[in-house]
Design brief:
By secondary structure, this protein is mainly α. It is 68% helix and 0% strand. α1 runs antiparallel to α2.
């Protein structure tokens, strides 16, 4: 994977994982906002909520792993959101799947 060097510190790995959850949540939000089907919108909302829970679990792992963890807002601000889970670039994926 081109986004993983292999020498990442735990903090970097967790920021990347957190950012992937954020990006997938953004994707589901965009899909929810772009559908005309109520059932589909509800489903995308539930999927986005799942990603919020995943972010919470990753942040908890971060707090359990890092000796001097930062607050969640600061951690989130450092997370990269250009990649979704699976390593897909969100902008490219959205463009390719319109």
């Amino acid at each position: 994977m081109e986004h993983i060097r292999g020498d990442e510190e735990p903090r970097e790995i967790l920021r990347l994982a957190y950012g992937m959850e954020m990006a997938l949540g953004q994707f589901y939000g965009a899909m929810r906002d772009g559908t005309n089907h109520d059932e589909g919108a509800r489903l995308f909302s539930r999927l986005a909520q799942m990603e919020e829970r995943h972010k919470g679990r990753i942040f908890q792992l971060y707090k359990d792993t890092i000796s001097a963890p930062m607050q969640q807002a600061a951690f989130e601000a450092e997370a990269t959101t250009d990649l979704m889970e699976g390593g897909f670039e969100i902008d490219r994926f959205m463009t390719d799947n319109k």
